[in-house]
Amino acid sequence: MLGIIKGDIRYEALSRMVPSIISNELSDFLDIDSLLLPFNGIDEYYNIKQSNINLLDILKQNDIKMIFVGNANNKLKELCLAKKIGLIELLKAPEFVMENARLTAMGVIYYLGQKNIAISDLKIIILGYGNIGYALAELLKAYRCKFSIYANTIEEAKFIRLQGYTLADFKDFDIVVNTIPKNLDWDYSIFKDKQIIDVASAPYGFDIDKIYEVGIKYEIISAIPSKFAPTSAAKIIKNYIEKYL
Least enclosed by CB within 10 Å: which of 18, 100, 176, 179? Predict the structure, then answer.
């Protein structure tokens, strides 16, 4: 039986797809042999994030053989090693990350489609060409959107050119979609009167104080798969963890 720590809405959807117990109460977790933690795992005291439960208390009353998490800190890794518990980090599994990136890119397209202008009439710059940037570029190309891509590395620039895409010059654009989880040394004036959508993880792509100084329209959109298509996001998790259950 899979125990699921109640988190965002995709976890609720997942609980309806597999035999499981979903809760934020320690007393509910009985007779489980595997556990799905929130993507950001536990803190240094073994407290499960987004809950009031300590992981050690769950382990005391259950024979846990497998733990699933987004990213594991050293405390979790050391605990699983000491107790001979299998540990699967979803965000380090290439196939999971790519599927999640595709759903994120679809969510960005859906968000952009809520405007009163067709996506094909927008001029977009994608910052970064990792998993999300790659998937988003494919979709924008299908929509015949005018877009270019900012390369964060020399290697990214090479693959952008090989795909036949244009490298960003920041001269003519309406919207920026950031996928780089790092504050880069921007000339913030080039973004004045533009819109920035940040879909990267912390610390995101921009210095918030500088953004407000220049007066840029800036929006962080997190956990897009669970907000855009929670059932589909849950299926991605289900398909991956079922390999180990």
Answer: 18
> Distance (Å, rounded) from C-alpha 137 to C-alpha 156?
13
Q: Which of 45, 18, 4 is nearest to 239 (CA)?
A: 18
Cα(208)–Cα(210) distance, integer angstroms: 5
pTM above 0.70, yes or no: yes
Q: What are phi and psi of 126, to 5 degrees?
A: -95, 125
pLDDT tens per residue across span 30-67: 999 999 999 999 999 999 998 999 999 999 999 999 99
Residue 177 CB-density burial (10 A; 0-12 exposed, 13-18 middle, 19+ buried): buried
195-244 pLDDT tens trace: 999 999 888 999 988 888 888 899 999 889 989 999 999 999 999 999 98
The whole-angstrom separation of Cα 86 and Cα 101 is 25
**CA 175 from chain center: how many Å?**
20
For 187-197, the pLDDT digits (tens) are 999 998 899 99
Closest CA to 188 of 213, 153, 168: 213
3-state helix, strand, coil in the chain (%, to 5): 40, 20, 40
Q: How far apart are CA 213 and CA 86, in angstroms?
A: 48
- Identify the burial level of 203 via C-beta atoms within 10 angstroms of its C-beta, where 0-12 means exposed, 13-18 middle and 19 or more buried: exposed
